[in-house]
Design the sequence.
């Protein structure tokens, strides 16, 4: 039977070294995707076909809608890879903890993976991808228009909405601040569990499914693959279902790393298929 024990900082770094290096190497490989062809889709790909045919969706307000839509997904993937690399650095080199610091990077990954996969989805049409990119942009402007502390924020958001309104009117698409056509933003935390863990029905109320829910659910799933005794099960009314204790624990950090890697890998799969 394995017993937990306190170890020195040097022992802990040595134990976490391999997984930290693996995450860092993978993140480097992800950021290199497409660098040999100007970050364009492969010549014989659905993405390149969409770029070649984007003129049918172009207007004076938006000349390259397909290229921009792919760029949004690609930039999100690059950002996620950077956070995966930063997570590796915190796990493998933090002089204190990590007890809390790694959650900043974990949260960005959990919230960004569903959106990047949604934007890069290789099964949708060019029209759908452009509509999703509009919803994605308007989601950011929604928060901007609420920020009364920034001079001109509301006006900037309103101008952006008007430009998208002119564009969607030309294409006869319905538009609101939250929707374009029948597209809406994916649910971030719940969506991550679907994408990273492959679980379609989590039997959870989306309204209760928060960042913490997804983090702890994902950590629990990863830990169950290693040692089920590490999990503390909560009551049926607790939306997280199970929790993982906070701390600089090799098993917990390894599970968190696996969780984040699975999410990033799913987006890479969408990017390559596209």
Sequence:
């Amino acid at each position: 039977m394995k017993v937990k024990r306190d170890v020195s900082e040097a022992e802990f770094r040595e134990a976490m070294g391999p997984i930290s290096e693996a995450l860092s190497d993978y993140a480097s490989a992800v950021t290199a995707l497409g660098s040999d062809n100007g970050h364009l889709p492969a010549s014989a790909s659905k993405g390149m076909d969409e770029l070649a045919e984007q003129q049918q969706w172009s207007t004076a307000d938006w000349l390259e809608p397909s290229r921009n839509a792919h760029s949004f997904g690609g930039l999100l993937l690059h950002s996620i890879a950077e956070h995966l690399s930063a997570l590796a650095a915190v796990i493998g080199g933090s002089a204190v903890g990590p007890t809390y610091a790694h959650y900043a990077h974990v949260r960005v990954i959990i919230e960004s993976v569903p959106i990047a996969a949604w934007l890069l989805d290789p099964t949708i049409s060019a029209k759908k991808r452009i509509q999703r990119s509009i919803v994605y942009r308007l989601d950011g402007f929604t928060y901007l228009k609420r920020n009364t502390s920034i001079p001109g924020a509301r006006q900037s958001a309103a101008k952006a909405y008007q430009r998208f309104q002119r564009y969607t009117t030309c294409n006869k698409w319905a538009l609101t601040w939250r929707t374009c056509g029948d597209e809406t933003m994916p649910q971030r935390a719940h969506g991550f569990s679907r994408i990273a863990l492959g679980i379609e029905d989590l039997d959870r109320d989306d309204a209760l499914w928060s960042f913490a829910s997804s983090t702890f659910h994902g950590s629990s799933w990863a830990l169950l693959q290693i040692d089920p005794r590490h999990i503390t099960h909560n009551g049926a009314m607790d939306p997280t279902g199970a929790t993982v204790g906070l701390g600089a624990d090799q098993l917990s950090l390894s599970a968190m790393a696996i969780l984040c890697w699975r999410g990033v890998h799913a987006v890479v799969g969408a990017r390559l298929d596209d």
